[in-house]
Amino acid sequence: MMPNQNDDLQQLRSQIAAVAARMIAQDGADYATAKRKAATQVLGDERPAANLMPDNLQVEEEVRQYIALFQSATQPARLLELRKAALGVMEALSEFSPYLTGPVLNGTAGEHDDIHLQLFVESPKDVEIFLLNRDVNIDISETPHFKGARYDPVETISFMWRREGVHAEVYDLNDLRGALKPRADGRLQRADIEAVRALIEASPDLNEP
After folding, report:
1. Cα–Cα distance between 141 and 55 in angstroms, integer?
2. With bands split at pLDDT 50, 70 and 90, how would you rate the model's confidence at 209?
3. S-S: 116 plus which of 91, 102, 106, 195, CB 3.0-4.6 Å?
């Protein structure tokens, strides 16, 4: 029987996803970097074709499996800690319509992860002034727009909040339209204050010291 090319492609994608997941869970690598390094490790020095690269959802699922196998004793407590910190900073920034995104929302966050927020405001300057007036040191950078490359990058304000790193992407108010649809796998892409509070209250570790 001739080997099935699609099966070979799926196997390679799975291998790359598994290696990338280990880098993300162990070292806190971002998804793009982890996938690139994993592809080099699995394929050698080849420049991988686009159809060989796993998508982020496949890598995320591998991260979940890695956590379940190797970090189940420590990761849930760390995740809860990060979600509580996220809720605190979201409450402080409540006037800017904060939404939680990334690993802290999807449940894969570990010891190396920061809190990622998206704010929807009339002007990024309002957020900067709010933080500076509270003696919060901020760094300004740019992040690709979640709607894709056709849109300009957005300002990202990074700062420390109670010993946790926070990266707040600042969007226009109109960007919130259509932004609350679930992901392809049905999970939330972003969560408001009430949704984050519900995640914390549903945690089995909520009452643990």
Report:
1. 25
2. very low
3. 102
Contacts of 104 (CB under 8 A, 6+ apart): 79, 82, 83, 86, 113, 115, 116
Q: Note whether 93 and 119 are within 8 A (CB).
A: yes
Give 53's DSSP letter. Answer: S
**Strands laid side by side in the 154-161 sheet:** 99-101, 115-121, 164-172, 154-161, 139-143
| Six-digit token string for 116 | 């990622």
Contacts of residue 183, defined as CB under 8 A and 6 or more positions apart, other chains included, come to: 57, 189
Contacts of 88 (CB under 8 A, 6+ apart): 161, 162
Give the Cβ contact number of residue 54 at 10 Å: 24
Rounded to whole angstroms, how far apart are CA atoms 139 and 128? 10
Closest among 70, 67, 52, 57 to 15, alpha carbons compared: 52
* E strand or H helix at 159: strand 154-161
Task: Kindly report the number of other CB atoms within 10 A of residue 144's CB atom.
Answer: 13
Q: Which residues pair with 117 in a beta bridge?
A: 100, 168
Asked if 81 contacts 172 with a C-beta cutoff of 8 angstroms, the reply is no
Can you say whether residue 177 is alpha, beta or left, with left for phi > 0 and alpha for psi between -120 and 50 degrees?
A: beta
Helices (H), the chain: 5-27, 31-43, 56-70, 75-92, 102-106, 124-132, 193-201
